[in-house]
Amino acid sequence: MQEFVPSLIELSYLVAAVLFIVGLKKLGSPATARNGNRIAAVGMLIAIVATLLHQNVLNYEMILVAIAIGSAIGALMANRVEMTAMPQMVGLLNGFGGAASALVAVGEFWRYITSTTEVPLSETVTIVLSVLIGGVTFTGSLLAFVKLEGWISGSPITFPLQQPVNLTLLGTFLVASGFLIIDPHQPFVFLGLIGIALILGVLFVLPIGGADTPVVISLLNSFSGLAASAAGFVLMNNMLIIAGALVGASGIILTEIMCKAMNRSLANVLFSAFGAAQTMTSEGGSGITGDRTLRQIDTEEGAMMLGYAKSVVIVPGYGMAVAQAQHAVRELADQLERLGVEVRYAIHPVAGRMPGHMNVLLAEANVPYPKLYDMDDINPEFDRTDVALVIGANDVVNPAARHDRNSPIYGMPILEVDRAHHTIVIKRGMNAGFSGVENELFFKDKTMMLFGSAKPVIEQLVSAVKEF
Amino acid sequence: MAEGLMIGLVVFTLATFIGFEVINKIPPTLHTPLMSGSNAISGIAIVGAILVAGDRNWHLTTILGLVGVVLATINVVGGFWVTDRMLQMFKKKEA
Predict the structure, then answer these.
(1) ipTM score here?
(2) Distance, in angstroms, between A335 CA and closest chain B CA?
(3) Which residue of A100, A167, A299, B5 has the fewest C-beta atoms within 10 A of its own C-beta?
(4) Extents of the domains making up chain A
(5) Under an 8 A CB cutoff, do A27 and B26 touch?
(6) Closest Cβ–Cβ partner in A123, A357, A369 for B92
(7) Which of B1, B52, B82 has the CB atom closest to A78's CB atom?
């Protein structure tokens, strides 16, 4: 029996890995996604149970207590969280995952240096790597969480010599790792390494602004996977390596999609403190506001335009989510459909605070997902659209991205609402978007501005449309 | 040990490619659930934490391992649960 257990554990890990892959694959379609998630969860359960069978695992009671505590907290968080707060939730969970991986490495290190055994070179290297990735993921995610919660300002925080400081810290980390590799029995050097990793995580997220949060969350998601992989190398455990690699790959893909949607390179997102510096250039540069006129309408006129339209495309932005207006929006769509208007939704890849966030928010308001259109699918349709209704979105509908080479958002793919016959923009005020750029869409002849907070304005539109 | 490292690298590289292949086809609508779901999978660190916490004798390693188990479990349970909560809202037709 004793001889079979190790093979049984390895086989269970293989099954778990297969279930993870199948689960991720099923997450690829709305119809099968829920099952996919459950399949992956079963994989996780198998992996955990198999691990408890391991001959070195004797501390069952305490481990089960720890699992019970973690499950209670996790379930509570998952049940309580608002859908608007999903980026924070994912950010926090990323951080916990990263911290757990780093703790595995630290624990292994401690076990090695307190026992008499020689520490193999590869072991020290993987432990140091694991501490670096896990530590950065942990504090970086916590800071992203704090920023998203609004506990500190979401705008980029910069200080003089930021890059040199970062580079010095990274250099110090490498040198100290070298010392540790030569002689692992230096707990204080190791503590120093942990400290630097934690500080680097903070410094890495600090200069990144609110608009770039989708990128950061995706990247940290990838890191949390890589941290698990690194811990897998420390323990030479294929389960951790495989699962971590899958998550690492998925995070990288999402990061790339987000960067593409903003037409920026990853390096630019990480190091340029976007949104802080550009504000000044756009104000100093063109000075648009003064000489152009806005066309303002009230909700009665807005309701008329929408009610008599054949087709309406709704463009929701984060402003809609902040105002909690998604249920009102869906009611408006219902009323319009009652009048025979075709209503569709256009979702920009970076609408919301994380990839796909807007889709979740609309799904919560019971909007059927086939009515949500991706940017590439809806853009050719705007020519044939009577009214494009922009709610709390700004940069992602700014036509300057197409033609104004001086604009900081030049080249960013946008939703081409200005090609619709009419555009109605619901907006709180004339503040610039995340990028700090004035939006020329607002000054076009075909654009009507409807000022006010999204929720009351849409509720008024709903009651006006009801009268039809 | 170096041999183990090589095998690990092979496994890691192949798994990364599988990850790229599988996830590339996921539509933008599902990116948030994908992220929270894959996030739950990164809670696989729980396996490592259990192994580290396994020793019956109390010392620093055991304690670090147990803290790791708590954190990783939050990651696993919270991640899968919240993903399920999101996905149940995705409907083809209005209810």
Answers:
(1) 0.94
(2) 14
(3) A167
(4) 1-80, 83-277, 288-466
(5) yes
(6) A369
(7) B82
